[in-house]
Amino acid sequence: MKKHNFYAGPSILSEYTIKNTADAVLNFAGTGLSLMEISHRSKEFTAVIEEAKALVKELLEIPAGYDVLFLGGGASMQFCMVPYNLLNKKAAYLETGTWASNAIKEAKLFGEVDVVASSKEANFSYIPKGYTVPDDADYFHFTSNNTIYGTEMRFDPDVKVPLVADMSSDIFSRPIDVSKYDVIYAGAQKNLAPAGVTIVIVKEDALGHVDRAIPTMLDYRTHVKKGSMFNTPPCLPIYAALQTLKYYKDAGGIKEMEKRDLEKAAILYDAIDTSKLFVGTAAPEDRSIMNVCFVMKEEYKDLEGEFIEFATSQGMVGIKGHRSVGGFRASIYNAMPKSSVEALIATMKEFEKKH
Ligand SMILES: *Cc1c(COP(=O)(O)O)cnc(C)c1O
Question: What is the pTM of this model?
Answer without folding.
Answer: 0.98
